[in-house]
Protein: Protein PTST, chloroplastic isoform X4
Organism: Phoenix dactylifera
Amino acid sequence: MACLKTSVIRKLDSGHCSVIPSYVSSDGLWPQRLAYKHCASVSSAQQCKFISVIYPTHPLFRRHSSWRVLAAPISLDEEPSSLSEGENFDGTSEIVSKDASEMLLPQKLKSDELKSLLSDAERQKLTRKLSEANQYNRFLKRQSQIKEDALVKFKSELAVLELELQALVGLAEEVANSGVQLGSRKINGKYIQSHLLSRLEAVHEKVKEQIKDVDLLKFEEITLFWIGMAESVQVMGSFDGWTQGEEMSPEYSGDYARFSTTLKLRPGRYEIKFLVNGEWQLSPELPTVGEGMMQNNLLVVE
């Protein structure tokens, strides 16, 4: 567009139109200034007036719907409007900048959306921690099973050794009771036959004690019951640090249900409690320890 034709320009007697290149603004616009010159003779002196219009040449803002057309009457006898070119351009730039910011900048998050994002982040963090805890718990269970298998193997080997020692003790006792031969030497005041018998008996007793210690480390299968109407029953306790517990399977019979589960526990004393439909309850069939909120059922494994 070389010249901007308006009704005001057509009314001028003689005028010239020229395009004055302007700077590139920070918003990426290429405004051009269109200047009009009009000269007239008034009181033997030639007076000239310049009319300038600034318009953008960027193709985006040519099609923008928010552009406004501003018009003002122009007369040769009147002084220019108090609104300067800079102020006009600044107002236009403000409109363009506001519209562009509305298009480009994202809207601020509402408080509910921000809370939702924060809660989702916390939920993901807790889920990740729970997953890591479950993985570590499964790892501990596998390690416990490996040690349990090794313990069972060790107990079987001790049992075989105990039988061998028992047979040797019987033979030594038979030799000692057969009589002392001439020339037999003594050890600690005892004949060698009697000394051998006493040593074998001592070793036999130690092996039997070790077998008892292994039995204390061995898991025992304990069956627990809960009787009543419920949708879900879970037994929690000190046997796993009150972490996961064990789900109990229901067996319906008439007007009530019988929930049961089997725990593998080592000999000892354990505190347990039943989680029935999300509420803590005690079993009347087991003894209790503690008071108030700290009251639990006592489970003794021998």
Observations:
- The helical segments are 7-11, 59-62, 85-104, 111-177, 192-217.
- The chain has three domains: 7-104, 136-217, 220-301.
- The first strand starts at residue 15 and ends at 21.
- Residues 1-38, 40-55, 60-73, 78-96 have pLDDT under 50 and may be disordered.
